[in-house]
Amino acid sequence: MTNVNFRVDLVLKEQGVSPIEFFTNILEYIAMTRKLLVQRALFSKEDTELLAAV
User: What total number of domains does the chain contain?
Assistant: First the structure.
């Protein structure tokens, strides 16, 4: 098991989702779908389409 330490802004804490709950849900999603929720990109898909049209 791995431990991760970080600080969470008080405003985010007051929103009702604990950091443990958040990361557990994210890791479960990745394990089940084998996909990340975000994608690294310099351009959005729309930007890429616009550049291809020029």
Answer: 1
